[in-house]
Description:
Shape: globular
Number of helices: 0
Order of helices and strands: EEEEEEEEEEE
Amino acid sequence: QVQLVESGGGSVQAGGSLTLSCAASGYTYRTACMGWFRQAPGKEREGVARIYGGGGNTYYTDSVKGRFTVSQDNAKNTLYLQMNSLKPEDTAMYYCATDPYWGQGTQVTVSS
């Protein structure tokens, strides 16, 4: 059974940094597309970043380009999201996913 477990969320001030991790069990990242999504209160879930094929091409939504970096460690079966220069509008629950599996989410709160 595949499980995705996120960690690393927390509360930071604007301009700060956080690194989210997503540990997978029962699954390998090597050939899949893995992604980070977020959902703020009252808003739809949106795709933030994704990475293809075991560390290949990456994609970012415009609002995080230049600030967030998605990566993965195949040996550890772990996906990461390095978030720098955080803004209050980045506040949301962050999820990792690979179709059709989702993690439970980790909360990121950025104060101004």
